[in-house]
């Protein structure tokens, strides 16, 4: 059954949004906010965005007091009920996909309940990080506190009803939003924020490994692996082949390039990399619908990464290649790539902090750039395996042509 994130108090999962009551919310919040009393809960309703077929995100406000002071919290309940999902698939919910979805939901619950506290426990306070040599433009970048994901107060799965439930801060009420209509991250500043968030995730997971003496797979044997894609591989391959055909129809003068894309197979790209490469805890699904940005006027100021169902243990450039190939335009990919990768590398080193003298500490920027270029093949295959991949986008054509010039297609 369900349990509190800290496992100190067992808390049942509400079976619907209507069951979110003041007494239940008080139990959820009191671990982080001792002495809290919740007197009122106002359920606002669903605010799900993006694909929205796996989870329903319901906003609610909680009002109460703590230490004699009035308190108000804007929260969301992220709920996943696998029973209605068969409707999405026309009553034919493939068992292979269902099994992967169940594992993905369990993965996110365990990430928030088990992994996040450990990552934050080894984080180096920004005041203790040593300054680096700037951002490549002769300007210093401010230290970024570890805030690449939303605050989660409760995460659990009811094994009897197969209902997953998470309670998190409502990022929308804080000014965060996803890009509308699956628009790519068209600015260098937006990409800087996104790669900085990935650098924090990667750096903290590597720091945790070195300080604990255990690898991520040893510590968390439930994280997703490439072999977990074998079940729905037929569906993934079909999407890839369909999108390659759309690409071919949109660019009829690119017969040679299309032939090379047709030779690729997700089965080959998605298999475990046998080479002895440095690996980190990876988001693996860092695309625009999972990137929430807060703006100060027109300038992007903060970022949060959401939807942590697909965690894997991968080379760090897998996340970066997918981010670039799926989420940028040609200008950012071609003209600002080196500066963005340099920012990632600096943030990674800052996040590693003191007491880390091996592994990613010795990973040079030039090695990072070389791995990124090679792993862009993974990024292309991942993008073309998505239902919303935009295979007719001229920016994608330019990126694939550039990657071909690098000798990796």
UniProtKB/TrEMBL annotation:
InterPro entries: CHK_kinase-like, EcKL, Kinase-like_dom_sf. It comes from the Eukaryota. Residues 166-354 form the CHK kinase-like domain. PANTHER family: PROTEIN KINASE-LIKE DOMAIN-CONTAINING. This is Uncharacterized protein LOC118428098. It comes from Branchiostoma floridae (Florida lancelet). The gene is LOC118428098.
């Amino acid at each position: 059954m369900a349990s509190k994130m800290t496992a100190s108090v067992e808390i049942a999962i509400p079976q619907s949004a209507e069951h979110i009551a003041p007494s239940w919310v008080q139990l959820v919040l009191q671990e982080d906010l001792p002495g809290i009393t919740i007197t009122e809960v106002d359920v606002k309703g669903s605010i799900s965005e993006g694909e929205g077929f796996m989870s329903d995100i319901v906003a609610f406000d909680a009002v109460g007091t703590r230490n004699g002071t009035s308190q108000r919290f804007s929260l969301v309940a992220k709920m996943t009920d696998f029973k209605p999902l068969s409707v999405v698939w026309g009553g034919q919910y493939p068992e292979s996909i269902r099994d992967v979805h169940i594992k993905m939901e369990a993965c996110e619950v365990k990430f928030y309940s088990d992994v996040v506290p450990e990552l934050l426990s080894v984080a180096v306070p920004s005041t203790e990080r040593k300054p680096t040599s700037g951002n490549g433009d002769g300007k210093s970048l401010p230290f970024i506190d570890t805030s690449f994901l939303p605050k989660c107060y409760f995460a659990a799965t009811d094994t009897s009803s197969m209902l997953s439930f998470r309670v998190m801060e409502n990022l929308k009420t804080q000014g965060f939003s996803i890009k509308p209509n699956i628009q790519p991250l068209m600015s260098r500043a937006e990409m800087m924020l996104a790669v900085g968030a990935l650098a924090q995730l990667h750096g903290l997971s590597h720091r945790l490994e070195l300080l604990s003496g255990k690898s991520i797979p040893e510590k968390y044997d439930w994280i997703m692996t490439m072999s977990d894609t074998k079940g729905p591989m037929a569906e993934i391959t079909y999407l890839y082949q369909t999108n390659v055909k759309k690409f071919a129809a949109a660019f009829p003068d690119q017969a040679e390039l299309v032939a090379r894309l047709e030779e690729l197979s997700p089965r080959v790209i998605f298999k475990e990399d046998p080479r002895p490469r440095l690996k980190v805890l990876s988001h693996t699904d860092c695309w625009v619908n999972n990137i929430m940005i807060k703006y100060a006027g027109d300038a992007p100021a903060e970022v949060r990464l959401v939807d942590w169902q697909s965690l894997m243990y991968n080379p760090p450039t897998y996340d970066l290649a997918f981010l670039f190939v799926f989420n940028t335009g040609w200008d950012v990919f071609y003209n600002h790539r080196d500066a963005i990768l340099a920012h990632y590398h600096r943030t990674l080193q800052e996040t590693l902090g003191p007491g880390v003298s091996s592994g990613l500490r010795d990973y040079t920027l030039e090695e990072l750039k070389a791995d990124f270029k090679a792993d862009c093949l993974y990024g292309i295959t991942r993008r073309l395996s998505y239902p919303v991949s935009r295979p007719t986008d001229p920016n994608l054509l330019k990126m694939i042509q550039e990657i071909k010039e690098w000798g990796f297609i």
